[in-house]
Amino acid sequence: MASVFGEEQNELRRVVRRFFEEKSSEDEVRRLMETDDGYDRRVWAQMAGQLGLQGLAIPEEYGGSGFTQLEMSIVLEEMGRALVCAPVLSSAVLAANLLLESRDEEAKTRLLPVIADGSVIATVALAESSGRWDGDGVATTAERDATGWAVTGEKLFVLDGGTADVVLVVARTDRGLSLFEVSAGSSGLTVRPMDTMDRTRKQSTMVFSRTPARLIGAEGGAAIAVERMLDLAAVAVAAEDVGGALRQVELAAEYARTRSQFGKVIGSYQAIKQKLADMLLSVELSKAAAYRVAQVAVDDPATLAVEAGMAKALCAETYVQIAYDTIQIHGGIGFTWEHPAHLYFRRAKSNASLFGTPAHHRELVAQRMGL
């Protein structure tokens, strides 16, 4: 991957990895899992103030650092490696990219700088009871009266919905799919935490009962922006999957080198050697796909719609299989609560469904290719 990353990007990886190794140890991940917020506000402030991670891929004119999805993918890969508990995916990826694609200059100027500096956490409310991660699954409605817009409906799987200051709601009006801004604590808004498999990433149900909202962009003009956001979300999750999978391979290899059975370390047995080799090969293939799609997002965004789905499907399936194999190599201890293997397994299974299953993405790719 030397042709993908330069020295500055490699240095970014080293800095970010050191930071997360210090701030996101296994003990800290387990502590944050049990909190309502699901993240450490002091670490969040350091991520923004010291490293500028929240605004890394936000253009400079909107208060960000002006880097690209390639640099953001490096950060997300390292976050996946350390199972970092922080609302980066919801705020810096979903919300920021949706705003950038909204063509609403006022909203971008007003919201992106505070997302970039970490003072505001934003999220996107899209999925509903249909379980679909696209505009066709949206039944939530928005109506306009003399006082303004009001949103009515229920959203599921809202990332970091319990801590978000701003919610970008995808809803239908008479003119079609539209985007609305709802502030936390607005009248008619009810937020309930969801009990999900991955406890390191908080998700919520949001119920809107004629909740006051502010239109972002043109009425009926959100479909393309939502589609583009989902493609970039697929790029982000693919990177996160690669980071987690690679860390699992490292854990499995380390255990195989130290665990003895029948007087020999288990890593000396051919069956374990073969499994570890297969695991590493699978991760390297997924890594190549994740890096490629991140580069495509920068250099050839017109083809991203096809590339993103293929990368998301491959990386998701690889992560799940690596998580299974890691538990197998560890044997009985791999099934225990005390061992971190199950934390990665939960993240892998959750990510495989987030923004659509591998089957959904393959079908989407086929449709976009006209097959």
Low-confidence stretches: none
- The level-1 CATH class of the largest domain: Mainly Alpha
Largest sheet, in brief, is: 7 strands, mixed
Radius of gyration, in angstroms, nearest whole number: 21 Å
Distance between the termini: 31 Å
| Helix/strand/pairing category | alpha+beta
Which strand-content bin applies to the residues? 15-25%
By CATH, the architecture of the largest domain is named Up-down Bundle
Instruction: Average the pLDDT over all residues and give the rounded result.
Output: 95
| Helix and strand sequence | HHHHHHEEEEEEEHEEHHHH
The shape, in one word, is globular
Number of E-type strands: 9
Total of domains: 3
Structure notes:
The chain is of the alpha+beta class and 371 residues long. The chain has three domains: 110 residues, Butyryl-Coa Dehydrogenase, subunit A, domain 1; 100 residues, Butyryl-CoA Dehydrogenase, subunit A, domain 2 (Beta Barrel); 145 residues, Up-down Bundle (Butyryl-CoA Dehydrogenase, subunit A, domain 3), CATH 1.20.140. Helices cover 52% and strands 16% of the residues. It contains eleven helices and nine strands. Strand 8 and strand 9 form a beta hairpin. Helix 8 runs antiparallel to helix 9. The protein starts with 6 loop residues before the first helix and ends with a helix.
Task: Name some characteristics of this structure.
single chain; 371 residues; Butyryl-Coa Dehydrogenase, subunit A, domain 1; Butyryl-CoA Dehydrogenase, subunit A, domain 2; Butyryl-CoA Dehydrogenase, subunit A, domain 3; seven-stranded mixed β-sheet; two-stranded antiparallel ribbon; globular
